[in-house]
Specification:
heterodimer; A: mainly alpha; 68% helix; flat; B: seven-stranded antiparallel sheet; 10 helices; elongated; disordered N terminus; binds protoporphyrin IX containing FE
Chain lengths: 329, 525
């Protein structure tokens, strides 16, 4: 295949993935809308060791209509998940083709478009991978909507034609650095979604129907959020404080330069360290910790997108602007 | 009557609410080392780092900073007072992270002893009432308590728990695991200090300097040869390695098609160097991402540009300036700016200021020249002429990239329009009024090398790697205690299982379920 046809394939795969995510979203919306009228099973509110935390508890009973509804709900839930898996696979093809389209072939993260594509892919991938283990069914509509939105933003506003990497970016440290940064970003994003839902859920609505009523208990959400953050934090540490400086040392002669991107990566790191501390500190547990997790996610995404518009000194040239030809110090 | 001597001062001659000095100190220490303070200091550190990402920092981009300062004459003195141009060396930023480190030491070191004892301790006795714990289970069995407890022991032992078994009338197994979590945590926090030490060594004892070398020229590593030099405050010039380096050739690979046409795909400086006067000559191809390491010093290629060779003869016909002149590129097209200072010219000094275009093209739209491409397609210089006093003898150091035009007015044509020197290689122009001639003899290239010593970088790296290892231990080792009690009652043997998570992240309910399943599985077999 020629580079041009790889590029076309990549664009088509992005469109296809968007379409399949959209179908998945619809399936989940049907799932949740038919659940809306069913009251939450009494058992799911119980706090005991046999309870399946995070699972969607559905009332079972002799009620025929309820039974039919339950089956339909389950069907659409499963359909939505399968469609999401399919979309993730297609999105992977899109990324792969993007890398194949460049001459020489390269990793598909040379600019904002590709980074956004890869970032949303990892969010979806981690979600799919942890779906059973952390019982993330409740998260389905949010994650799918999120990924779909990001994908659309990428395709509409950030699209850039395939181009070779600037020389500073051709380093295997780049590959390790960016892979780990993207993985951490994915985990933190899912953790942030969980913390947001924790805040919603712990406001303690009395209702027994609807989406919020079916969210797992706040303790469960808090623990899932912690697990996601606890996974993301070491990966972020590795990306930002180990591989980033090693690469910077090779490319720019200084392993830590207080470049705006570095500053914000550091801020993100410090905020998440504060989150981990808050979870173990009386008076900061729960609500405040969850707020810190959201602040962390805000700094993370601000660093990714916002700082490019605030600062032009950044040497992280994927941000757009021309790579520094020469730096006058 | 026995006398008890008290060294304590009487308590009651103090007003209520007043603290003794010692107590005050102790109180302050407790505050500083509390987890809450650490948390607040962490958040403060995050906040304090923000200004440095929006205000240009002199240590990061000096040029941009001085431009910003020129544009904001009112804010500049205020910002300067607040150290906002060097946030990360400022007293207030340092104060926050030093306090954080103090808090860290004060928090972690006293705990070390506590951890040490904890690590060697046996699991504590089972609480009297296991069903009071949040995660527990109870069921009846037909088997003998001893059999069940033996099975619990085996099951927990297989899962790497440390065990205590009671033989008394109250029969239970107490199990604990995850002792290394605290070690991991300790390692992490101490490693943060190590990183800071490494970082501090680098910024105090290291240096960073830059030099622009015209291709073909050499450089010997002494202070005077640098164009800019930024030493740490404890750096001594005798720490510099006595090496010599020559840039023999420079290659650049231009992209001429595709979306990134006009960009350079890569460039390489072919160098020869000697580690010291009497070492053998060696060769190295210096590229971005591939620095040359000589002893403790690293040499990086961080930029390149063009140096038009310009010769100025004065009114007497004497050569008063000649040589490659470094022009600084403005953008990807390598449109570059530079100046020539011929301050020994007679009858009057001559200054030239203008632009170099590697591939000159004329825009009808703007009525000016521009560069269409970064490679040498159609090189041209276009410069304005200034005559008079360039103020080079005033004793004030001047940048080699700018002219002092205060006493040197621009040369104009009769009609008042500026007099321009537009030359292609090989051309010469005679200036009016018997000032002399200017010729453009050819184009050379220059490379910008950054040379630095970063002592302590391995300490910092080792620190972060250790911190990461510690962090993994701290986050993924789940310390937990599990108890199993079995006793006879009127329905058979009552088995109680309970678990307690000590990290706040574990799912103890699952642990209890799993253990109960293990006990019952054998039950049925
Ligand atoms: C440089 C600043 C600091 C950073 C980056 C940092 C980071 C961390 C991290 C990532 C954890 C793991 C949290 C977890 O296990 O869930 C942790 C735990 C802990 N930190 Fe820090 N810390 C810092 C300073 C401090 C200070 C000053 C104190 C003392 C007041 C402290 C006390 C603790 C304690 C006691 C834990 C254990 C919490 C637990 O067992 O879950 N840390 N810290």
């Amino acid at each position: 295949m020629t580079d041009a046809s790889w590029e076309t394939l990549s664009n088509q795969a992005v469109a296809a993935a968007g379409l399949v995510y959209f179908l998945a979203l619809i399936a989940h919306l049907i799932e949740w809308s038919s659940l809306r009228t069913l009251p939450v099973a009494a058992g799911s509110e119980r706090q005991s060791s046999v309870d399946i935390p995070g699972g969607i508890a559905v009332a079972t009973g002799p009620d025929e209509a309820g039974e039919a509804k339950r089956r339909r709900t389950e069907l659409f839930g499963r359909l939505g998940f399968l469609l999401t898996c399919l979309a993730v696979a297609i999105q992977f093809v899109a990324l792969l083709a993007r890398g194949m389209a460049a001459d020489p072939n390269r990793v598909p993260w040379g600019n904002m478009y590709e980074f956004t594509l890869a970032g949303s892919f990892v969010v979806a991938l981690i979600y799919v991978a942890l779906y059973h283990r952390l019982k993330l069914a409740w998260m389905a509509p949010i994650v799918v909507a999120f990924v779909l939105t990001v994908l659309m933003v990428a395709a509409i506003w950030l699209y850039a034609p395939v181009a070779p990497l600037t020389e500073a970016l051709t380093s295997y440290w780049l590959v390790i650095h960016v892979v780990s940064a993207i993985i951490a970003t994915g985990a933190f994003t899912l953790g942030g979604i969980t913390s947001a839902m924790f805040l919603v859920k712990s406001r303690g609505s009395e209702r027994t129907t609807g989406y919020v009523a079916r969210l797992p208990q706040p303790e469960v959400l808090d623990r899932v959020s912690y697990r996601l953050h606890a996974f993301g934090f070491p990966v972020w540490t590795f990306a930002v404080l180990i591989t980033g400086p090693i690469w910077a040392h090779q490319a720019w002669s200084s392993y830590w330069n207080w470049d705006p991107k570095e500053v914000w990566a550091f801020i993100t790191w410090v905020v998440y360290a504060a989150y981990l501390h808050a979870r173990t500190t009386a008076g900061w547990k729960g609500r405040n910790a969850a707020i810190l997790a959201l602040v962390g996610m805000a700094t993370l995404w601000f660093n990714f997108i916002g700082i490019n518009y605030f600062s032009t000194t950044s040497q992280h040239s994927y941000a757009g602007g021309a790579p520094a030809v020469v730096q006058q110090r | 009557m026995s006398t008890s001597l008290s060294t304590r001062p009487p308590e009651d001659d103090r007003k209520p609410g007043e603290l003794g000095f010692g107590e005050l100190l102790r109180w302050i220490w407790r505050q500083v080392t509390s987890m809450r303070t650490a948390l607040i200091l962490l958040l403060l550190l995050a906040l304090a780092a923000i200004p440095g990402s929006v205000i240009p920092q002199s240590g990061v981009d000096a040029l941009k900073t001085s431009n910003w300062q020129a544009d904001h004459p009112e804010l500049t003195p205020i910002y300067e007072k607040l150290s906002l141009f060097s946030v990360y060396d400022s007293p207030w930023f340092s104060a926050i992270y030093l306090l954080l480190m103090l808090s860290l030491v004060g928090c972690i070191v006293p705990r070390t002893w506590h951890y040490w004892r904890g690590i060697r301790a046996k699991p504590p006795a089972a609480p009297r009432n296991l069903t009071r714990l949040p995660d527990h289970a109870a069921y009846h069995s037909t088997e003998d308590p001893d059999v069940l407890l033996e099975r619990a022991r085996a099951a927990l032992g297989k899962r790497r728990y440390r065990l205590t078994v009671s033989d008394g009338p109250d029969k239970w197994v107490s199990a604990e695991r995850g002792y290394l979590r605290e070690v991991g945590n300790l390692l992490f926090h101490l490693s943060v200090l190590v990183v800071l030490v490494g970082f501090a060594i680098g910024s105090l004892l290291g240096y960073k300097g830059g030099v622009i070398l015209v291709v073909g020229n050499g450089f010997s590593n002494t202070l005077t040869q640098y164009d800019d030099f930024d030493p740490g405050s404890l750096f001594g010039a005798d720490d510099m390695e006595p090496f010599f380096l020559t840039v023999d050739d420079f290659d650049i690979d231009w992209l001429t098609e595709g979306a990134a046409a006009g960009q350079a795909r890569g460039f390489v400086a072919h160098t020869t160097y000697q580690e010291s006067l009497d070492s053998p000559e060696e060769e190295y191809d210096l590229k971005v991402n591939h620095p040359l390491t000589i002893g403790n010093t690293d040499v990086f290629l961080i930029g390149h540009g063009y140096a038009p060779v310009i010769t100025v003869k004065d009114g007497n016909g004497d050569v008063v300036y000649s040589g490659p002149t470094i022009f600084l590129p403005l953008d990807q097209t390598f449109q570059s700016i530079g100046v020539v200072k011929a301050n020994t010219a007679e009858p009057t000094q001559i200054g030239l200021e203008g632009e170099f275009y590697p591939t000159a093209a004329f825009s009808d739209h703007t009525g000016t020249y521009f560069s269409a491409f970064g490679d040498l397609g159609n090189p041209m210089i276009s410069m304005l002429v200034y005559t008079g006093d360039l103020n080079m003898d005033a004793g004030v150091p001047q940048s080699v990239y700018s002219l002092d035009k205060s006493d040197a007015p621009m040369l104009r044509k009769k009609n008042g329009a500026p007099y321009r020197v537009d030359l292609q290689p090989g051309e010469e122009v005679t200036l009016p009024n018997g000032l002399g001639t200017v010729s453009f003899d050819g184009v050379e290239r220059w490379t910008k090398l950054q040379i630095s010593q970063t002592p302590g970088k391995w300490i910092a790296l080792a620190g972060v790697v250790l911190a990461l290892i510690g962090l993994l231990g701290s986050l993924f080792i789940r310390p937990r205690r599990v108890w199993v009690r079995a006793r006879r009652d009127e329905h058979g043997t009552l088995v109680e299982v309970a678990a307690l998570d000590r990290s706040g992240g574990g799912d103890t309910a699952a642990v209890v379920d799993e253990l109960v399943a293990a006990l019952q599985r054998e039950d049925k077999a």
